[in-house]
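ok so I'm stuck.
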Amino acid sequence: MIRASNPILPGCHPDPSICRVGDDYFLVTSTFEYLPGLPVMRSRDLVRWETIGHAIDRSGMLDYRGIPSSGGLYAPTIRHDGERFWIVCTLVDPTDATRGGNFVITAVDPAGPWSDPIRMDADGIDPSLAFDEDGRVWMHGTRLAGDPQWHDQTEVWVREYSRDEHALVGDEHVIWRGAVHGAVWAEGPHLYRIDGRWYLIAAEGGTEFHHAVSVARADSVTGPYEGTRSNPVFTHRHLGRGVDVIGAGHADLVEAPDGSWHAVMLAMRAADGHHYPLGRETFLCPIAWEDGWPVFAPGLGRLPDSIEIPWADAAAPAGSWQPDDRRPGVVEPGDARWTSLRALPNDIATADAHGSWVLPVRGETPADAGTVAFLGIRQQHAQVDVTGILDLAALADGERAGLIVRQSEQDHATVHVARTAEGLVVRAMHRRGGVDTVLAEQVDDATDSVHLGVRVRGYSYELVAGGEVLAAVDGRELDASSTGGFLGVWLGVFATSDGLPPSGTVRIDEFRYEPRRDATAVPIA
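replied:
not stuck anymore, here's the structure
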């Protein structure tokens, strides 16, 4: 029997939304300040996934300028109306609320192209949509309650959307304010028409340790909704800190061709019950229906390590990982995993005739919420070796380039080379809470081709130059539970002139990502 292993999408793939069209499943996740945005992933069996495109993949579709880390694209929803795909999402700018907001895009082919975003006149975040049997479109989302009974109470609203007017029309209805008295952030709402009833699935408790899933139902899409007495119907918080998966919530349901039901949701793998450098990942959960209500992980009550998929005819290839079924090794230009900050990879770098990235230096540093000269991929494994061979021959005096372990502008670690009057200087640095500390420094008398690396073993992030470990950084100081925000760790290459007029370039001769399944985690004391 073929099994889907959890998480089905490892690494930072939060807020998953899924729909099925025929025999194919389509899934999107949040991407925040990284571009391209909103990866569209496809599977025929919930086991093997591939990235077929990105919904935000053209310059100018959205304005990312100055959006800080953990701003950007929040909680998309993907649906199909029988003719075309729809995605609704929120662009969040913590520095300028007028620039952000909820928007709609559509496409005939989920691989793209997607339409330009159409803004919705609706407050809040986490929009979703459902199609009625008569073809009407019902938008819904969450926002802070207008007259809250407690701090951070939110409410779920629903309103009709006109396809012709591309706008919300008719009356708005507030349908939910939380299942549990005192529970914060009733968010990630999704409505479904199932067996003549409307069902509302919502997250509660905040997207961290206390995350949970609640359910309500009604005869009419506009309510009134009644919650099940079992609410919250799913959570890991009652398991305590002794489990290795925490924060389960933000679920979206899908029915398989054989009539079985599943949910995708986010959760975090935390070896110590607290810290999760890989971020919020996408997990799969079986669903059963009993007495007219969904039961999550029946008989188990927690996310399983794996799930039998009777209709699957092949497992993921040996030596690969999801998504994309990519094999370990060199990550070349054109790989769907490459991302950049607030700009598309092809807008800040070019691929030369030898298949190497050429990255022009920029004045912005990794500490700036700007268009940084950065190319990186999600960390998807707790044990992994990342190596880069960089040609710095065209790096100008006063410029630096190297590898970065990135959480945000305020929190990251680098092993980089600076061109100075004394020659090439290799440094290992850790920026924590906005404060930079040089961990190690040495003059490099080698050639302009440098070999740098990051060796990850659990919470230990070793910064390597020329095969020598210069320093180690505690990954527990780089994860969102310590730094704030919503992201996992990214691993990549950066280049900066530290605010001076840039003139140099860096060629990435090789970038390798190699999971070490045989490695032993080495926690930092």
